[in-house]
Amino acid sequence: MTSWAQKQKFTYVFIFCSSLFLIAFVPFLLFYHKPAACTDGKQNGEERGVDCGGGCPKLCASDTLSPLVLWQRAFKVTPGVYNAVAYIENPNASARADYAPYVFKFYDSNNVLVGEYPGTTFIPPKEKFAVFEAGIVFEGASPARTTFEFKEPLIWKSAGASTPSLQVKSSTLSRADSTPRVDATLSNTSLRALSNIEAVVVVSDGEGIAIGASRTFIDSLPSGESTSLTYTWPEPFEAGVGLCNSPVDALLIIDRSGSMDDDVLSPPEPLTSVKKAAQAFVERLEKTDRGGLVTFANNADTFPLTSAFDSVLKAVEAVSIKEGVVQNTNITEGLISAKNELLFSGRASASKIILLLTDGIATDPKKTGNENYPETSALAVGSEAKKEEISLFTIGLGDKVNQEFLRQLSSSPEYFYSAPSREDVDTIYKKIAVSLCRKGPAIIEIIPRVYPSSQ
Predict the structure, then answer these.
(1) Edge to edge, what strands does the sheet with 81-89 contain?
(2) Single pTM value for the model
């Protein structure tokens, strides 16, 4: 009984003393301990610095790393108008900056400052991103060198646990030699809908040097869904010519039907001019390429693919219109011969190309009851060639050709060329050669970024 009474007495004493301690200590603690204010210009509470760290949303400068400027460049859009891009990496895995002021500076070839362009942006956590400024106008001087810098100090904040996830698929480039166009697909692989999305595209040549850039915005993108991206430029990229991204196996198809001497009989025109242009095309091929020749009228003849370009040039020179018999226009036979040569003798590592030139309307082969058979049969062979990843270019010479037919026959509408006169043929061959052997553009990078308003 005594033992129990002593325990009860001890319990009461402990409770009494604890109460006295709390009554005395808590006011003392409240009076002398100041919680982190985060905005009072002083280091207090659990702050690691003045108004930063601890429970404050602002991170201390000592806890963050400066963003890395990987490269900066100005890209000509039209004469006197440029886009500027800086490619940045944020090395901080869990820190973002919602307000990051910056400045682009532009210098001419004599290193004289010709312009400045200030702005602000958002820095996402642990990402590479692009700062893009469009339509910067320069009068008189052109930018030869560009610099970019953030105006420190940046205010860093904790990024939180959730970050948006976007994936780019199917980036393709077309019309590189005229009005370039990039098409791509952007998918939202996050678990939530995203809005206020910026997507910058950078196009680089075969050596990895950026030669063009553009930007688009997506208002919103639901979780699990995709959207199409399209970028266009009014002029070709400023890239060199002569370094092919891959070897080329190219088959020239030349029409030698009776109409190819309708302009002049001796020497036959337009055939003579067409042959000269074809030879100029062959001379543009690289050492890693191969060339071949198919000629057609009623039937087709093939000179096989070879890297001995002198022999191809001689084969082109020997093309002539056969006399003594009507020579019709059998485009189907020419395509079959070219397709078979590329499939049987073409290299797996090489891009396969057909270049068809004709000055007339397809007249053969014929099928009773089907007056359109010469064209429909050629379209069928062209479709088979495209399925085999053969690029088909068509050139219509003069005003007698069915342009719509040749446009459908080509791999895409921009692969059809109309040559009203024989003088245009050489220019067209040069354009095609440029599109096949451009020093880039070979690399397409889409850089998406979600702005804070969607988070």
Answers:
(1) 68-78, 81-89, 128-137
(2) 0.53
